[in-house]
Amino acid sequence: MSDSIYFPPSLQRFEPKRMVFSTWVDHLPFAYDLVAAIRPKMLVELGVYNGLSFFTFCQSLIENNIDGVAYAVDCWEGDEHTDAYDESIFLDVQKHARENYRGITYLMKMFFSEALQHFKDDSIDLLHIDGLHTYEAVKEDFETWYPKVRPGGIVLFHDVMARLKDFGAWRYFEELEQSHEEIFKFHHGFGLGVLRKPGGQAPETQLTQLLFKGDEASDQKLRQFYVHASHFLEARRQAGRFREITENRKKGGQGKATA
Question: What is the count of structural domains for the chain?
Answer without folding.
Answer: 1
